[in-house]
Amino acid sequence: MSKQPLAGIFTPNITPLDSHGRLDEDNLRQYVDWLIQKGVHGLYPNGSTGEFVRFTPEERKRVIEVVADQTRGRVPILAGAAEANVEETIRACDTYGQLGCRAVAIVAPFYYRLAPDGVYAYFKEIADRVSVDVTLYNIPLFASPIDVATVKRLAMECPRVVGIKDSSGDIPHMMRMIAEVRPIRQDFFFMTGWDASLVPMLMVGADGGTNATSGVVPELTKAIYDACRAQDWQRAMQLQYQLLPLFDAMLGTSEFPEGFRRGAKIRGWNLGESRTPLTPQQSTAADKAQAKIRELLSGFEFMKSPARAPIATDDTVISQIVMEVLQQLRNQP
To answer: Which of the following is catalytic: 61, 152, 165, 292?
Structure first.
């Protein structure tokens, strides 16, 4: 069986929490269905937007179990599998692969900043031992940066390393990676995690994006990707300039990813509160930002239709069928 392609828009989904701060599995299942229905090309649970560092390893595993079970192969899953050390990361990678994830994404070592050789050794050890494809995750804001030479070295030496998610927003860096790696690994994919430069990244050769805004406006990010695929660059840039202020408004709201939670709430999804508490002043600022986000969203065509249509579960569908059959029997002479 051929592997699902790792291209297009992958949603680094927010992790829904209930009123007690626990994983809201029912809400997560419905949210997954909505994202797929709206056309996202893949899902990226346990990413930065999903606040993976604020959950226990057992909770992170449960997130993947729920997403994989609900997705059922409809779109590929790129699962965040970063743990605090090599052995735990390998264990998470193998577990997520067994659950059906297409690949895992591993952030470069965080807290302790490593030199390029240390970053290489870290990924090499993992890639040589796991049973699932590995995506490098470059986010220099929070972790050791992954330079071009290291990406090329890993691509040459590690068949399991199949791509990179780059959240630096650095277009020349992306171009240099593509120029160095693509001639030697045609199967190696490049994803951007910086929504503000989605179109320019696709224009220079990236295969897609892991974009937090796709969890709020999947219609818009899909339209951007489709326009780029059609090489309708004028249309793509028009949409990019619509996305830009929305991304800035959500990114700059209080503590990340609070703005994206507020955006999802406007679309009809109450995904709960983050595990990071906010001061009253931060909450007030977030409320004001939510009003701005609402104003920006009101300008989009897709907001004129109901934001969130109820998504029937299998049990609901069965119940509806039973009720219809019973009604038909009652109507018979």
So the answer is: 165
Q: Is residue 274 part of a domain?
A: yes
Q: What is the pLDDT of residue 112?
A: 85
Is 137 a known active-site residue?
yes
For the domain that residue 130 is a member of, what is the CATH number? 3.20.20.70
Query: Domain for residue 3, yes or no?
Result: no
Rounded-to-integer distance, Cα 28 and Cα 328, Å: 35
Q: How is residue 62 written in tokens? A: 């449960």
**pTM: predicted TM-score of the whole model, two decimal places:** 0.88
Q: Is residue 1 part of a domain?
A: no
In a domain, 2, yes or no: no
CA–CA distance, 194 with 21 (Å, rounded to integer): 28
Closest CA to 35 of 59, 60, 9, 55: 9
Q: Is the peptide bond before 257 cis (omega within 30 degrees of 0)?
A: yes
Per DSSP, the residues of 192-250 read E--GGGHHHHHHTT--EEE-GGGGT-HHHHHHHHHHHHTT-HHHHHHHHHHHHHHHHHH
- Annotated catalytic residue within 122, 137, 152, 292: 137
Q: In this predicted structure, what is the pLDDT of residue 183?
A: 97
Is there a catalytic annotation at residue 165?
Answer: yes
Pick out the chain residues at pLDDT < 50. 1, 310-333
| Range(s) of the domain holding residue 159 | 8-331
For the chain, the domain total comes to 1
